[in-house]
Amino acid sequence: MKSFFKNVLANIVAIVILCAVFFFFFIMMLVFSSMSSDKSVTVKKNSVLTINLKTMIIDSPTEEQKGLFDISNQNKSILLYEALEAINKAKTDDNIKGISIEADDLYAGLTQVDDLRNAIEDFKKSGKFVYAYGNTASQMSYYLGSVADKYFLNPSGMIELKGLATEVAFFKDFADKYGIGIEVIRHGKFKSAVEPFLRNDISPENKEQLSTLLNDLWKNTSTRIAASRKIDTAQFKTIVDSLYGMIPEQSLKYKLADQLIQKTEYDRLIKSKLDLKDEDKLNKISLGKYINSYSGDDAKSGDKVAVLYASGSINNGDEYNEIYSEKYIRYIKDLQEDDKVKAVVFRINSPGGSANASDEILFELQQLKKKKPLIVSFGDYAASGGYYIAMAADKIYSEPNTLTGSIGVFGVIPYFKDLANKNGIRSDIVATNANSQYYSSLNGVSPYGVSMITKSVEGTYKRFVHFVTQNRKQTFEQIDTVGGGRVWSGTRAKQIGLVDDLGTLNDAVKFAAQKAGLKSYHVASYPKQMSAFEQIFKDFNEDDISARVIKNKIGKANYEILQQITSEKLNSEIKMEMPYQIKTN
């Protein structure tokens, strides 16, 4: 007995010590995080603003991916608006003599790179230089780098210039093989989010919309690259088709690069541009540090234009990441009641999600619009539910390469009757009413259940189109013609009247201020970024930790496929969601 109590006491002491160690560890992390973020930054003379591998451009604070052990600022996430403001400020900053683009892989979306390119093109009007350097440059990073006065490539490097393609994974045979039944109800022949569960290839309708969409996006992108590099359009197509960028000498021959040099030689070249000697230090300053150098300068009192960011899929609930209805309802109500907020820009970067959650958010935005100007700006995606929640806007701005529209609705209901039967599992039902068990994971959906869900999908689609007709001032028939789940580029969306104008987030902010009659104002971003303390405890979420482990083991692409076939949201509600993402790298 004495031994027993001795062991119990020892375990208690060990637990107390362990808790104390963890507590000390957390406190130290918070201290180091605070110290690193509070460091003052001074911009030295003859500095070069650098866009490098350590910069991640995000649309919303909720996209911040800093983890439990990321206490440094080495991979700082920067809001797109802040990045654009920094480049604009550098244009008139006497200490900044030029920009150096040194990103082989760019962590930013296509429309974000469009905006960065526009800002750099405007920067060049100052007469300051813009150079770019690549080792093994992805297509996205080359798209940005091609805006430079000169592009330099490593002698053993490459440029992955190949055009756009999409690959759709299909699960019908997988489901059949393992006895998984999938009941699908959708409205719109172009609503292809459900195709992977119904077919083994891309339908003609989906192939048509994908071809049109990809060609629109590539036309916008390739035209700008060719113009910047002064390459004939026909010749540029040959260069891309032939993958000439893969060979350094071919890149030089066909004007993709101006010179093949090592990175050290590139730095010397910049020194020479600045009239510095070899022994002089080259002062490079990253976007993140440059923003920190002046972020506390401007007074934050007075009238505000609020930018409310909405990035990710749309869901019911109250979580921080992505777009959760309860959380966004609170944000919208707070902005409505804040007397200092004179106008709101709603920045949408979403492929859609829950129809119910989208409807809740739209209603609150409609209430906000009654009190203040509401301008919408689209990022990479504004499709399905992402387009639906824009229908309260006074004006909608889209980027040329925004994936827009996808006005359609669907429901997917998986069941496992054949799988269960093959393994000797049977079920029997006792119920009080005719349709108490209209759906069962073992037996699927009853015929009457299918009928009612179909009515629900059709009703949701009509409600969707109704709000679009009100905002776009078109008839049901006109919207239905360009709806049916079809996704359009921002350029075509403007042509068919789904958006008001092509423009950037900056354009939306300026118009919002103008509509509110503001001459002096500052821009405030919502939601606020999580504190280091909040981030630490968020990382202890069991599901989040499990997801990260699996993603690291099988890779991001495979993890996204796994999500498609295992998501609990598949059978939980009617969806307004786009079926895919376009990746340009």
Task: Describe what this molecule looks like in 3D.
The protein is an alpha/beta fold. 44% of the residues lie in helices and 20% in strands. The protein folds into 3 domains: 38 residues; 173 residues, Alpha-Beta Complex (2-enoyl-CoA Hydratase, Chain A, domain 1); 235 residues, 2-enoyl-CoA Hydratase, Chain A, domain 1 (Alpha-Beta Complex). Helix 2 runs parallel beside helix 3. The radius of gyration is 27 Å and the shape is globular. It starts with a helix and ends in an 8-residue tail after the last strand. One of its GO terms (biological process) is signal peptide processing. It is found in: Membrane. InterPro entries: ClpP/crotonase-like_dom_sf, Pept_S49_pIV, Pept_S49_SppA, Peptidase_S49, S49_SppA_67K_type_N, S49_SppA_C.
